[in-house]
TrEMBL record:
PANTHER family: CHEMORECEPTOR GLUTAMINE DEAMIDASE CHED 1-RELATED, CHEMORECEPTOR GLUTAMINE DEAMIDASE CHED-RELATED. It catalyses: L-glutaminyl-[protein] + H2O = L-glutamyl-[protein] + NH4(+). CDD domains: CheD (cd16352). Belongs to the CheD family. The lineage of its organism: Bacteria, Pseudomonadati, Pseudomonadota, Betaproteobacteria, Burkholderiales. The gene is cheD. GO terms for biological process: chemotaxis. GO terms for molecular function: protein-glutamine glutaminase activity. It is an enzyme of class 3 (hydrolase). Keywords: Chemotaxis, Hydrolase. Its EC number is 3.5.1.44. Probably deamidates glutamine residues to glutamate on methyl-accepting chemotaxis receptors (MCPs), playing an important role in chemotaxis. This is Probable chemoreceptor glutamine deamidase CheD.
Length: 168
């Protein structure tokens, strides 16, 4: 019989760092999640950020959403992994999200695409090997990250057609 896992649900702006007793879940639209996982130590981290870049001013970083910006979320995850003695260069990175919640324009890079591109550049900048990604497309994603084995289940849900009012 396997040990029961403790479920954590990330809201936008949240992040989590923990060991193999945790399973982390979230829902993403245009937001992006990065997972970091150390295979030997079985310690992982997951973010759910809303915007690329970082909150430059104190009021840009609400206390209840410290990981609202990608760079802030990444720093919080790296600090948490360091507290567990995890060498970042040995971690596996995965990136998810950046979906289009509205029809995409060929002329404008929407926030989902900006978030996904920013996540890629952050992992590259920190020397973290990206082993998989599921980015962009239409609709939202459901994610489940089981830290024990590093597995991330991702399910993309296409947008529902707009409601129409029937005439009587």
């Amino acid at each position: 019989m396997s040990e029961k896992l403790i479920d954590i649900f990330l809201m936008p702006g949240d992040y989590f760092v923990g060991d193999g007793q945790y399973r982390v879940r979230t829902l993403l639209g245009s937001c992006v999640s990065i997972t970091l996982w150390h295979p030997a130590l079985r310690i992982g981290a997951m973010s759910h950020f809303l915007l690329p870049g970082h909150g430059r001013r104190k009021h840009d970083r609400p206390a209840d959403k410290p990981g609202m910006y990608g760079a802030d979320a990444m720093q919080l995850m790296m600090d948490g992994m360091a507290q567990h003695g995890v060498p970042l260069a040995q971690c596996q990175g995965k990136i998810f999200g950046g979906g289009a919640m509205f029809p995409r324009s060929a002329k404008v890079r929407d926030i989902g695409m900006q978030n996904g591109d920013y996540a890629r550049s952050m992992l590259q900048e920190h020397g973290i090997h990206v082993v998989s990604e599921s980015l962009f497309g239409e609709g939202h994603r459901q994610l489940i990250f089981t830290i024990r084995n590093g597995e991330v289940l991702s399910r993309q849900v296409p947008p529902e057609p707009a409601w129409s009012k029937e005439e009587a």
